[in-house]
Design goal:
about 30% helix, single chain, TIM Barrel, globular, alpha/beta, eight-stranded parallel beta barrel
Length: about 750
């Protein structure tokens, strides 16, 4: 008997959830109106959730709720109220990105199972350990991993009580998840807030290679790779598509369910995937999974490709046969929609009715008979009924009184259809506490013999007056030619390590040992042997301080007792994230995300003896990709990107959107391809807006080509920033020496 793998389906609205259940999904993931990473989906109301849970569980289908966005401070009270309600439902798990939410769940709401979102960018064993320490039971691995990497991380997961799920169908992202800010910068719609406007799918001015959609990837389909995924021992196969319609969900889930059944029963795979082409797709690729990241993953059209693939139509053809095929395609599509609609119309998420009969006589217990559509049960009071008198302030057991006291039963998967008191003797009384106890017993039974948890009061940090002190300056570099700054300035110099450390680690160890003032800055993505090289670096250099954007390195720093600072790409935006970093991982300080505004930063309260950092000048990273970003722009002599490309290639180019704004593509040796904004970020307002908040401001002086120009050399610019922080130079002078710049994110926030 083969090991069963969960088939996890998207549910963007009620019809899609029903379609997933009807098609045989083992689990469905869906979001509420708030706190989820698909704001463009219809999503569901909390009032519908219990009905959805009942329907799903009746069909042996689990339900996971997406709470997978970063959460600003002003939203925490509403989030806590939601968690207090969720903890009393039968939800099977919550999907999480924000470290503050991890802290709340693992500290105060332990009955809720935690799944780590793909937005956490989990690529190495250390990140698996980091998530395990946060009480995660499952992690959604990134789409860009290959099967060997998935297998290694799944093994590491099993060793740390963590299951893995893998996307097997739906959209590919051009960027590493959680490291994409292009929608946030160009439109104010943060991908980390579920508002991604998908600028990677936009049309750009035609590139030298003749492409109009240079960032647009085909869709992911691992339909033929089920055996390898099974051998890798992943726990769940995840279908992307919470903004897709119910017919799409049913078709894809149904296809995959049949594939799984064939694999289980006959130990073979279906090769006919034509049904997958009948619903929305951009053509398909499994290149990431195969580890063959090639130029054929791109498609120069982001729209629905199904009609072309299914009926052989090309845009300019008037051929009668092809027109006929087009008509047949739409007719079949209508048939699919009608057929699925018929299936889901028979599924109801309506609350189940309760008939409650209350009876009792003087000096006997109060008897409450509860009938559901499936069963019935009796609850008795512990005390006997007594006679009321006119001097008593107690209420009689009247219909309005009991209806009010039992109203909490309506908040779950049931509603009181009828409350009957015909067999209850008049003018009798029982204590308020006894009625409450009966209500709790009823709720316990209706809740599957699971205790109802009273609302949890979460203590919030109180703002304390910070000791006024001079704010320091830190400078980030990435080239050894800039080491001269160590001699020319007394500010702290941070050196960014490359993504590919393995071949350079010995030289970098020597560099840091020979320059003890130099402080290491770890990148967000460190995979496989490069993660191992980073651990070797830490073990030999033993830095007195470090910055990391990678949680796996954070975990290791905590284990080794190395003071560490959480980098800006950990997307920290609330006080509970800081508590999480300090209490769980002995973090000494954290950058605050550059995505949030002055007012959103103001609500952040650090724990005691915890420092806050902020980057006031830097090139704005829009996205980081594992794919070659030059294939569709200027071309490349190689058809696929490999490790040698990452290690050796150094190249730059640009694409221009239809608003005539250029985006700069940068590929440096040892690093993944990146896209940067045309104007660098410069925010000197924060110095006076939020005094005594930050311990150190940072400036990024790496050699990243954008439209921003500096009139001075790097030591001169550093000195000018120091003067601005000391109040000895004006912000205007700084802006005259660095231009053009922007700080739109600080003004708008998320």
């Amino acid at each position: 008997m083969k090991r069963k793998i969960e088939l996890l389906a998207p549910g963007g609205d009620i019809d899609s959830i029903k379609a997933a259940i009807a098609a045989g999904a083992d689990a469905v993931y869906c979001g509420l109106n708030r706190f989820n990473a698909r704001n463009r989906a219809t999503n569901i109301n909390f009032e519908d959730l219990n009905g959805i849970l009942n329907l799903a569980h009746e069909h042996n289908c689990k339900v996971f709720l997406t709470l997978n966005i970063i959460i600003v401070g002003s939203e925490i009270p509403a989030l806590v109220r939601l968690l207090n309600k969720l903890v009393n439902t039968s939800i099977d798990g919550v999907i999480v990105q924000d470290l503050g939410l991890f802290y709340l769940l693992s500290t105060y709401f332990k009955p809720l199972e935690i799944h780590a979102s793909t937005q956490l960018n989990t690529h190495n064993e250390g990140q698996i350990k980091f998530l395990s320490k946060l009480a995660a039971s499952r992690v959604n691995l990134p789409r860009e991993l290959n099967i060997d990497e998935i297998k290694a991380l799944t093994l590491a997961g099993h060793e740390n009580n963590l299951l893995t799920e893998v996307f097997v169908h739906g959209s590919y992202c051009i960027s590493f998840s959680g490291l994409c800010y292009i929608s946030s910068v160009h439109g104010g719609n943060s991908g980390n807030r579920g508002r991604c406007s998908q600028p990677c799918r936009d049309r750009y001015l035609t590139t030298p290679k003749g492409k109009n959609f240079p960032l647009n990837l085909k869709d992911n389909s691992a339909y033929s790779d089920l055996r390898e995924l099974s051998d890798a021992k992943v726990a769940s196969l995840k279908i992307e598509g919470r903004i897709k319609k119910f017919d799409y969900v049913f078709t894809v889930v149904n296809c995959w369910k049949k594939q799984l059944q064939t694999f289980y029963s006959k130990n073979r795979l279906n090769t006919d995937n034509s049904d997958l082409y009948k619903v929305f797709n951009r053509d398909f690729s499994n290149a990431y999974l195969k580890g063959d990241i090639n130029k054929n993953m791109f498609i120069d059209n982001p729209r629905d490709h199904s009609i072309k693939q299914f009926s052989g139509i090309n845009d300019n053809s008037a051929d009668k046969k092809q027109v006929k095929g087009k008509i047949e395609y739409y007719e079949e599509k209508d048939e699919i929609i009608a057929s699925v609609k018929k299936k889901i119309n028979g599924l109801s998420i309506a609350k189940a009715p309760l008939i409650i009969s209350v009876s009792g006589k003087l000096d006997t217990p109060l008897k409450v008979l509860v009938k559901t559509p499936d069963t019935s049960f009796v609850v008795l009071s512990k005390a006997n009924l007594v006679k009321t008198n006119k001097d008593s302030v107690a209420k009689c057991l009247t219909h309005p009184f009991l209806l009010e006291r039992f109203s909490a039963l309506n908040d779950r998967a049931y509603y009181i259809e009828h409350l009957e008191l015909e067999n209850l003797q008049e003018e009798l009384f029982i204590s308020f506490n006894e009625v409450t106890s009966i209500k709790k017993q009823i709720l316990f039974i209706l809740n599957g013999s699971k205790e109802i948890i009273d609302p949890i009061e979460v203590p919030f940090l109180k703002k304390e007056k910070r000791i006024k002190k001079r704010t320091g300056l830190g400078v980030l570099i990435s080239s050894q030619k800039d080491l001269c700054l160590l001699d020319r300035t007394s500010v702290d110099i941070f050196f960014q390590l490359p993504n590919f450390l393995n071949n350079e680690v010995s030289g970098l160890i020597d560099l840091f040992l020979n320059n003890p003032r130099l402080i290491p800055w770890f990148p967000a993505v460190l995979m496989g042997e490069n993660h191992g090289a980073a651990l070797k670096f830490l073990g030999q250099v033993k830095p007195k301080l470090m910055v990391t954007n990678n949680t796996g390195i954070a975990y290791e720093a905590c284990q080794k007792g190395i003071p560490w600072i959480a980098g800006p790409h950990l997307n920290i935006v609330n006080s509970f994230s800081l508590l999480c970093l300090k209490e769980k991982f002995n973090c000494s300080g954290s950058f605050i995300s550059n995505e949030i505004s002055k007012h959103q930063i103001k609500s952040i309260i650090p724990p005691e003896n915890f420092e806050l950092y902020y980057s006031i000048y830097h090139p704005i990273l829009l996205l980081t990709s594992r794919q070659c970003l030059f294939h569709q722009v200027i071309g490349c002599e190689k058809s696929a990107i490999d490790n040698q490309c990452i290690e050796r290639c150094s190249k730059s180019s640009s694409i221009t959107n239809l608003k005539k704004v250029p985006l700069f593509i940068e590929k440096t040796k040892g690093n993944y391809p990146c896209i940067y904004n045309n104007h660098n970020f410069l925010n000197t307002d924060i110095v006076s807006d939020l005094p005594d908040t930050f311990s150190r401001f940072f400036i990024d002086l790496r050699d990243v080509k954008t439209e921003t120009r500096m009139k001075m050399d790097k030591s001169g610019i550093t000195a000018l920033f120091e003067k601005v922080l000391d109040g000895k130079s004006s912000k205007e002078e700084l802006k005259q020496n660095i231009f053009p710049t922007t700080c739109a994110q600080y003004k708008k926030g998320i």
